[in-house]
Amino acid sequence: MPNFHIDSASPTPIYAQLDRSIRAAIATGELEPGSQLPTVRQLAVDLAVNANTVARVYTQLERDGILETRRGVGTFVRDVPTPQPARAPRERELRELIRRFIGDAALLGFTLPELIDQLRNEEKK
Length: 125
Known about the structure:
This protein is mainly alpha-helical. The protein folds into 2 domains: 14-77, Arc Repressor Mutant, subunit A, CATH 1.10.10.10; 87-124. The protein is built from 5 helices and 2 strands, in the order H-H-H-E-E-H-H. The longest helix has 21 residues, at 87-107. The protein is globular.
């Protein structure tokens, strides 16, 4: 199970940090299709965050077709992704994600070339 990281000192809201952490774990293969996530309560305890925050993230990821909840069993990474939304909104979302990523990294003192190098290194893993 990936170790989701939440930084309570970060200006980024906790729900956004958790959302990004889960999406990143799926994108990098740390969480594979069919993988079960911790219960809302367990993850809230592990991260020392409010259970409502975890539930909100799980619900949003389920709406986005990334997770699925099986009543009485748990929450899982979807085996079959939902159909892709139209390309233009996805590209807009990606541009916004990139802007936030670059901005957050700049606040931490990272340059764009450093980010690009790290992304290339992650891709090779």
